[in-house]
Amino acid sequence: MKNIKVLYSIIIILTVALITSIVMYFNQTATLKNGEEVVVKANKTKITAENLYSDLKEKYAMNILVDKIDHILLDTTYKTTDAEKESIDNQINQLKENYKDEATFKQVIQTYYGVSTEEEFREILSLEYKRGQAAQDYIKKNNITDKEIEDYYNQNIIGDVKASHILIKSNAQDDDSEEEKANKEAKALEKAKEVIKKLDSGETFTKLAKKYSSDKATANKGGDLGYFNKDDNYSDEFINATAQLSKGEYTKEPVKTEYGYEIILKVDEKDKPSLSSKKDSIKDTIAEEKMSNDTTLYYNSLISFRDEKIQFKDSKVKSLYENYKEKLLQNVTSANSNNNSQ
Fold first, then answer.
1. Which listed residue, of 44, 176, 203, 278, carries a Cα 20 to 30 Å from 74's Cα?
2. Alpha-carbon distance 68 to 18, whole Å?
3. CB 251 within 8 A of CB 264
4. pTM for this one?
5. Predicted local distance difference test score (pLDDT) of residue 338
6. How far apart are the first and last CA of the chain?
7. Cα separation of 159 and 268, whole Å?
8. Beta-carbon neighbour count of residue 134 at 10 Å?
9. Considering only CA atoms, which of 235, 232, 210 is closest in space to residue 222?
10. CA-closest candidate to residue 110, choices 123, 121, 98, 95
């Protein structure tokens, strides 16, 4: 491990020298000032700093070089925030939860990330977090049209909604047989339909919520949930069903959610916020969706972000970098094809 760290330090030094070398013409190749110094003697053969530098540049330096460039570009643009720290903590805690003892945790990060300490691992996660920010910002600036923003606004943004609900749970248990679960589900659905019939016959929503709702936190309040919006912790099924109701209207069929069967009453709805007030958050959402649907967009955005800000002074390294980009995108495209075919 000590020898690996020494070699890693040599690589970093040589990479920095590569970045900072200044040459007179574009086609020239950067060289070490003291490249003839011998760094290793094997039998009677001498390996000079220039020998080692050329070999490292050819075979190993590109990933380190890209990381170094991204650190330079991103660490000043994106300061570490509480959100980043929380994200990193969550990832590390999840990994430690999966691998209970410290020794296994360190073995995993050494095997998959090439680091031996949690501090080094945090640096890797920090760089990846900032890369995500940079890719998202690049997409927001270059890959989202005004029409996409307007369409999203018209289709997805609503005013705050006030609703009440009656929840009917099946109370099926994990150790129930499939037949038992199906029977309990059927009984819960039938009970929810009976509650709707009572509403149709004129009984009040508040009274029925207090009597039948499985949500004890809201049952005594007549099922009152207060005001909420799509950003709050409600299922898509619940939000969509509520959005389709008129003020004072309740669902005529039970709405199936992860919690059970819901009868929903829309009590009130505030005015829809303006497009200008939601534009930034809409762009964030669209950018995330675009990256989720097309992972090559993440890498292409990072490449474009990087290429706008760097200038190679070594034609050989520039060629290696172009090959690096090409292979990276090929691998990502191939991985996407394999995932889609499965």
1. 278
2. 11
3. yes
4. 0.66
5. 73
6. 39
7. 10
8. 20
9. 210
10. 121
Tell me the residue type at 229: N
Other residues' Cβ atoms within 10 Å of the Cβ of residue 14: 21
Q: State how far the Cα of 230 lies from the Cα of 19, in Å rounded to an integer.
A: 48
Strands 224-228 and 161-168, bridge-based pairing: antiparallel
CA 84 to each of CA 17, 90, 134: distance values in angstroms, whole numbers, following the listed order: 31, 10, 13
Q: How far is the C-alpha of 223 from the C-alpha of 165, rounded, in Å?
A: 5
Helix/strand/coil for 168: strand
**How would you label 300-326 residue by residue, b for 16+ Cβ within 10 Å and e otherwise?**
bbbbebbeeeeebbbebbeebbeebbe
Phi, psi of 59 (to 5 degrees): -110, -30
The partner residues of 166 in beta bridges, in order of sequence, read: 263
Distance CA 122, CA 114 (A): 12
Hunting for tokens 């990832």 — which residue is that?
A: 91
CA 206 to chain centre: 41
Mean pLDDT by 10 residues, the chain (342 residues): 42 44 44 64 72 67 86 92 96 91 91 92 96 95 96 93 97 91 95 98 97 96 95 90 95 96 97 95 95 91 92 85 90 79 64
Which residues are bridge partners to 192 per DSSP? none
What is the Cα–Cα distance from 216 to 211, expressed in whole angstroms?
A: 10
DSSP codes joined into one string, 178-189: HHHHHHHHHHHH
Residue 197: partners with Cβ closer than 8 Å, 6 or more residues away: none
225, containing H or E segment: strand 224-228
Quickly tell me which residue has 């997805």 as its tokens: 156
**Cβ 241 vs Cβ 251: under 8 Å:** yes
Chain center to CA of 311: 30
The alpha carbon of residue 22 and the mean position of all alpha carbons in its chain are separated, in whole angstroms, by: 39
Tell me which amino acid residue 274 is.
Answer: S
What whole-number distance in Å separates Cα of residue 333 and Cα of residue 310? 25
**114: helix, coil or strand?**
coil
CA dist 48 and 34 (Å) reads 9
Tokens of 128: 């990846």
